[in-house]
Write a structure and sequence with these properties.
The complex is a heterotrimer. By secondary structure, chain B is of the alpha+beta class. In chain B, about 25% of the residues lie in helices and about 25% in strands. The chains are: A alpha+beta, B alpha+beta, C alpha+beta.
Chain lengths: ~325, ~700, ~200
Amino acid sequence: MKEFGYQRAADVSGALALLDADPDARFLGGGTNLVDLMKTGVERPGRLVDVRELPLDRIESTEDGGLRIGATVTNSDLAAHPDVRRNYPALTQAVLAGASGQLRNMATVGGNLLQRTRCGYFSDVSKPCNKRVPGSGCSAIEGEHHNHAILGASDHCVATHPSDMGVALTAFDAVVDYETVDGPGQLALTDFYLPVGDTPHRETALPPGALITGVTLPPAPVAANSRYRKVRERASYAFAIGSIAAALDVQDGVVRDVRLAFGAVASRPWRAHAAEQALTGGPVDAAAFAAAADAELAAARPLPHNGYKVTLMRNLVVAVLSELAEEAGR
Amino acid sequence: MTTTTTGTRPAQAVGTAHTRVEGPDKVTGAARYAGEIPFTELAHGWLVLSTITRGRIRSVEDAAVLEMPGVLTVLHHGNAPRVDTGYTGMMGMSPDPTIAVFQHDRVPHAGWPVALVVAETSEQAREAAEALVVHYEEEPHNVTFSGEHPDAYPAPGVGGPGVTEKGDLAAELAASAVVLDAEYTTPEEHHNPMEPHAATAHWDGGRLEVVDSNQGTLWVANELANLFSLDPASVRVRSEHVGGGFGSKGVRAHQVAAVMAATVLARPVRVVMTRRQMFSLAGYRSPTTQRVRLGADAEGRLRALEHDCLSLTSTVHEFVEAGAGPARVMYDAPAHRTANRLVRLDVPSPTFMRAPGEAPGSFALESAVDELAEKCGIDPIELRLRNEPAAGPVSGLPFSTRNLPACFREGARRFGWADRDPRPGVRRDGRWLLGTGTAAASFFVGAMPSTAAATAEADGTFTVRINASDIGTGARTALTLIAADALQVPTDRVRVRIGDSDFGPAMIAGGSMGTRSWAWAVTAAADALRERVALSDGIPPEGITVRSDTTDAVGALAQKERHSFGAQFAEVAVDVATGEVRVRRMLGIFAAGRIINPLTARGQLTGGMIWGISMALHEEAIRDEGTGALYGADLAGYHVATNADVPLIEADWVDDPDPDDPVGIKGIGEVGIVGVAAAIANAVWHATGVRHRSLPIRPDRVLTAGPHA
Amino acid sequence: MAPAPSSTYSAVTLNINGEKHTLTVDHRTTLLDALRERLDMTGTKKGCDQGQCGACTVLLDNRRAVACLQLAVAAEGREITTIEGVADGDQLHAVQQAFLDLDGYQCGYCTPGQICSAVAVIEEHAAGWPSAVTDDVRPEAGPPPLTAEEIRERMSGNLCRCGAYVSIVQAVARAAEADARARAVDGDRTADGSQAAKREGAAA
């Protein structure tokens, strides 16, 4: 880890100015990913602008019945918030499925969205990786990739996005609010992450120097009947090999509204639009759920050792929608 | 739960639950481990490891790094002190050349130590180590381990000869009513003690002092004396508290590098491995490919048994993962063949890891026995009981005790085995398929010569000094109970001091032989002291000290098959839609000698069983064939069981004192892991009808396993 | 020996276990290394230095956190509690006593982190926080009972390689029960001061 300057920002405009003044500066939130990457040499900033104490730590109801979540709200506070638990239970479940109690107390909402892949080639500076060193090659495609992407990847990178929280936010149409020195902006989370293509090192559509200030969740009655299921290689404290955020609203035996997003299968939390379209207005049964999963997973391009993820995601769609259907019927 | 007796009558301490004597220090953070002892003028060393897997170091560009803030020196093959590796160390083995750091320009594996950067602070050392540019000439490497290696060779090890055989295997297999022929694999596994390897070396008045985290201080001291051509008496190594070892904490690069730097700089130098470095420098358990062939008559009696285990080692050191070892103890047959074979690859040297040989070997053998029982239509416990050998299948020697049947009977009763429906795939709880499985466990029992000193102090207390290591086993507490009983005093009048090479020769914490070996020496010293004190007129101010040496007594032990045994039971739940496997409960019943401290012994046994869960379901180091290095070499990439992976586990024991040990001890550090992976794999079969012959049983493997895996 | 404050060093005052410590830190210095290498408070352990084991768990503003990913310079202004500050003088905290009595450890290296984590788990549960194994996370469902399954999940950020998990769960459960009883008494006091005062009088 090289030496670096450190400043604690008092307000958003101050934080933006500090970052703007130094092209080698990075924002520091909870530090749970950035400090780790600095230790492994993946990140080598010359200056940290500490934004953890910015007054962005509130969760407030919006006028239309949604929620605005400040960027420095910790994962723990987000998961524990009564309105989140009541209106978006899958979001609480997703956050609680991530990391550990210690890390959730430190990690912030803004930082969670910006965390980097846990691909083992990315985090090992002795190995080639296009995301870390553009043009150096992707070691995973020919190497170890049993937990890599099946959707939306490219010949340049097959890494997955590690967030659990982001999967639930994606399902619920979250919008990212940010500020730049030129003023505020918004990005739908589905547009927030860039396609991989031949630029896997460019991960988000945030303008340079932008600071995430919060995430807005629109009202979503369907989200009250929602669930997050995560499959991983041990029971806790591990990244997903496949996860799903799902919400289901059934009326008169027909799917009125449905939300589906997948985790650990793509370079971003994967909103399953094709599956949602296939389900909406259709019957509520396992065959329909499986057909919808197949519609989404038709685009899957598995590698030799991660084809199981297609089966896994299909099974998760059927299992979780079936559970939600049963609960909706009660 | 503390049951320290404070009355005047001597306690019968052995056999009663006693909290750890160092427990208050451990729960308050007062216990200091190797990297935590303060030194003035301490400098921090940071190892630099090779980024290539095979080749030569062309140059180490140290000039720029030496200009960096706080950097004191950069040691590498061009300037490091020379060491001598031409000696025979402990257990008659020559040292792993990996410990002779910075002696030449060859790189035999990824993560080979190429330099040590020493700086005033750890932050400076780390950055300088990362900044150090090393140029290499890279050569092609081969790290691919599979069942097919034309140049594999049979290799003897501490577990015995490379090959044992008797009878006509082909003929007996041909004549068998039921034959099983299956291949099993286990992956590369890493010890990962929670405390990383750490050593601080300094010269103190012509004496080399090393504060280190290891499993045997005199072992490390003697190796350092040999390496640096020093008088053994001029080297002192201390290890008061050790944060786990499991076989990995012997002589390693960090101690040698620390001594070099302390010598060059003439000030204390601390070298601590990072967690990632441990994956290259601390040893590991070799992957194995094992083939088991069993032939039995219609009643399940074995006619033929073959167990072949292939493991790997580095190109610079031979270490055998003797997976065929359990077959030499557990089951006999008219035709009986075992082989431990090795292949050399461009990988780091493997080493002893909790139940070396037995842990992977029992997975294959005890899975195969379960498969045979299925084929024979016989209950797997009954099949094992029908194949209990009268004597060592290979040695022909009598068993000291073999209470395996008692373990199975007691375990079956408590686990509810009699109610088990043997059919696979017929029990369900919601999304989970349920199954139960069992397996046998065994582990070698031995004692090694040790010395101890017991002192009657003038204040009426007693001090026992023995160079034991407590790496979490509870040895310090167990020896306190043993000494108290031998001295016929309450435990609170006995102080046991350990972990100091100046205390003289003693067994290391290894091979499940530590506590037995030390207890023998402590008992001998205490017995002799009690007699001396009885004959004396009071205790002089300097106390009365008596020393013991068990070399002759241990050497006089009759040749026998000496082993701990156990019966493992597991219930698992499998979601075949997601591939998740959860262990719902486990029970282990052991015949493992006299139990000194039930409180800590239970932890040793359940801890071993948890290692078995971890081995069965989680642990796997993935070697990347392209780079030759590990993929994801950290605790996020290498999964050990978390608390949530572990259900309520019970361990208990049957009465089984060793008849030839003064205290009746056998050893409990390793037998707990043996057989667990097989019991879980057998339970997964019972739940799903699918056999898993490759560990770990990961979700992707469950999802892709066909109905006849 | 750290040089004077500069662009890459800062003077900080850390509030640790109720005491203020002023020192100049390299910005790279984590809270973990500041404790262990600068302040000689070695009770907080370094197991992985990457947030992957929990051995360095401390409390920041009474919430558990890993000290290895917390820069020391960024910890200024926060209330830091380490294992050295958990006990009340010579009186062990209920969690420490339970770990000792039930043998909730072996080598002891993960133990300070386990204990700090357990202290926080009991607080988090008392505050009604759900966990990943809580069936119904909606606030209307009420706080989940602190079952063994809940304890296991909540303690999973602390790896124990010796495999002391069975007794760790028992120790946390025992300490949590004692804590719940104490809270019930406190609750009575708040509800009915006179009654609580009477009970104290009777006890005296």
